[in-house]
Amino acid sequence: MNLISSRYGKPKGRPTKRRNMLAENSKKRWQKSSKTVDEKNSISMKVPGKHCTNCTLVIKQQHSMGYSTKMELLCESCHESYGSVFSNFQDEAKSSHDINIKLVSAFLSIGRWHAALETFSSVLNMPTMERKTFAKGMYNLSGKNKEAKKNMLEMSRQTAREAHVKVDATLKNQEIIDVSVSYDGTWQKRGHISNLGLGIIIDIICGLVLDFEVLSKCCQNCVVAGRDMGVESAEFHIWQKGHADECDKNFDGTSGAMEMHAALIMWRRSFSDCQIRFVSMLSDGDSKTFQFLSHNKTYGSHIKIEKEECLNHIAKRLGTSLRNEVKEWKVKK
Description:
InterPro entries: Mutator_transp_dom. The chain is α+β, with helices and mostly antiparallel strands and 333 residues long.
């Protein structure tokens, strides 16, 4: 089988002969078990048909779309069809099945990808969905999440604005208000080698998220397509041009710089998206983001961003320094 990361379940390398053999065996077992199911679930009813007097109706499984199977009611003698239906609800607008979307969402929520879903299906002796179907499910989920994100952020920004107006009534008639926010960044994994980084802005008064930005140095679809087609091939370059609007990669640089660049993106769009100006930033003691924003003059040269320190972080660092001094003094003594 492919080597699978113990944490993220991403396949490394091409499928081996053993993996292909296991997939074929699983497919054969599924076909055998599906025939048995058809025989057990066959409806032995004698009904008049168009081409024969006595029809024995049986349920046949035609084909599968991921984990949703199309079942058709047929006559064994004359093969006349009495209708067909999928085993799961299908969204006509996006031509996707509900069970596939839910499975994609479930595996993504635990940090797994298509390779883990294949292993899950093999253990249960079930046919799995193709990588293309999995990617389509991710795209549909992304569209739904974007709408939910937009609505939630609008509610948070409106609540924050009302909270600041309660504190200072003069802000009520102002189109753009100045607020103090807390900013911090995080990564998918430690060590400053992560491909994913996240920056978050939180209002100090109400404690709600006003904006966030996700930066990615990698697109899994691009990696798979490059591996299958060849990175230098003409087919890959043609595919990449059509994939540009859906590509997950939106950052070129080091993982440590993600926090600074995510802050710059959100500070620059604070006028258009939030009608808010982040003039004061509360951070965890790291001055790189503040210096980066000040150097780029986000709000122009006439408005300067102020930096505030978190007392909890200062107390933590001061306590650590004092304990280290005590240890050194005991060793010297």
